[in-house]
């Protein structure tokens, strides 16, 4: 890896921690450059503003998720088993890759800058992998053949209603252990009750 690439990644990592710790408004480019071990001039050569850096952090995280997460329909497993595994993986991505603190920063910044939300919301928390699996399940005759976007939105609403919004709003801690498994079971069972034709 070239030195320029190393510096770029160091800035991204430092910025992510800065945004998590201080939020967007209080995030400081001096602290980011110090933590990344680069000069402020180098920082601005890579990212011309704090806004550009914030968007870059989010985009890089999402690109990594989109590149590495794919769900293949498995005809040897039931729909319940498959969607349970998918939902568990989605929860891990939310809590481990994004993290609730960064998610909270994203939500607050979207409220402050609606135009930023419009530009980014279509790319954040990509649902492509889940939607692709739904399409495969429909093709296998296991799910009802309805509008894919509507199906995905229903699933995401269930998922975020139990595992995202209560945590972002500080109403509940991150779900883990049996609580997480119970939530996953609820999401899967409620979704499949409305959309499943057959288990396998």
UniProtKB/TrEMBL annotation:
Residues 5-65 form the HTH tetR-type domain. SUPFAM superfamilies: Homeodomain-like (SSF46689). Keywords: DNA-binding, Transcription, Transcription regulation. InterPro entries: Homeodomain-like_sf (IPR009057), HTH-type_TetR-like_transc_reg (IPR050109), HTH_TetR (IPR001647), TetR_C_Proteobacteria (IPR039536). Residues 28-47 bind DNA. It comes from the Bacteria. This is TetR family transcriptional regulator.
């Amino acid at each position: 890896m070239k030195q320029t690439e190393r510096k770029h990644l160091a800035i991204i990592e430092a910025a992510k921690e800065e945004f998590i710790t201080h939020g967007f408004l209080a995030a400081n480019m001096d602290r980011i450059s110090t933590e990344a071990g680069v000069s402020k001039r180098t920082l601005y050569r890579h990212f011309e503003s704090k806004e550009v850096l914030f968007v870059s952090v989010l985009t890089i995280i999402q690109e990594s998720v989109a590149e590495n997460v794919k769900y293949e329909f498995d005809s040897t497993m039931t729909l319940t088993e498959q969607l349970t595994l998918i939902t568990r993986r989605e929860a891990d991505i939310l809590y481990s890759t994004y993290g609730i603190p960064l998610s909270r920063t994203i939500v607050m910044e979207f409220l402050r800058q609606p135009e930023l939300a419009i530009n980014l919301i279509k790319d954040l928390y990509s649902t492509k992998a889940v939607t692709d699996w739904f399409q495969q399940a429909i093709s296998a005759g296991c799910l009802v053949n309805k509008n894919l976007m509507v199906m995905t939105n229903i699933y995401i609403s269930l998922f975020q209603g139990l595992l995202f919004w209560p945590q972002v709003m500080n109403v509940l801690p991150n779900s883990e252990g049996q609580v997480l498994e119970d939530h996953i079971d609820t999401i899967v069972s409620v979704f499949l009750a409305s959309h499943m034709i057959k288990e396998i």
